[in-house]
From TrEMBL:
Keywords: DNA-binding. This is DNA-binding transcriptional ArsR family regulator. One of its GO terms (molecular function) is DNA-binding transcription factor activity. The keyword tRNA-binding does not apply. It comes from Actinophytocola algeriensis. It comes from the Bacteria. Residues 1-89 form the HTH arsR-type domain. Coiled coil: none annotated. It holds the Pfam family HTH_20. InterPro entries: ArsR-like_HTH, HTH_ArsR_DNA-bd_dom, WH-like_DNA-bd_sf, WH_DNA-bd_sf.
Length: 106
């Protein structure tokens, strides 16, 4: 069963962008904050939500905080979404068949 914190965390576009930024490797809190037109405390709050959902982990190095993507929860979301992908694939296949059967008016 998936934790609702995952969906809550991913529902916000700023948090989704933070996850995208961390895809290629760890970044400092300052480097992440520089990507947004938000205050550093606002970005820190978003990072805290992602930490509570276990989507990122924080590593303190001296005075800097480095954030790393934690991909395991995203795999659980992907597994949960998989049956829905089949649903839409079937719908698109049906639509394609209908479109092929339609006479060309032009």
């Amino acid at each position: 069963m998936l934790d609702d914190r995952l969906f809550t965390a991913m529902a916000n576009p700023v948090r989704r962008r933070l996850l995208e930024l961390l895809r290629d490797g760890s970044l400092t809190a300052g480097a992440l904050a520089a990507q947004f037109d938000l205050s550093r405390p606002a970005v820190s709050e978003h990072l805290q939500v992602l930490r509570r959902a276990e989507l990122v982990r924080e590593e303190v190095r001296g005075r800097e905080r480095h954030y790393h993507l934690t991909a395991e929860p995203l795999a659980a979301v992907s597994d949960w979404l998989h049956p829905f992908e089949r649903f839409w694939r079937d719908r698109m296949r049906t639509l394609s068949k209908i479109m092929e059967e339609e006479p060309d008016d032009g």
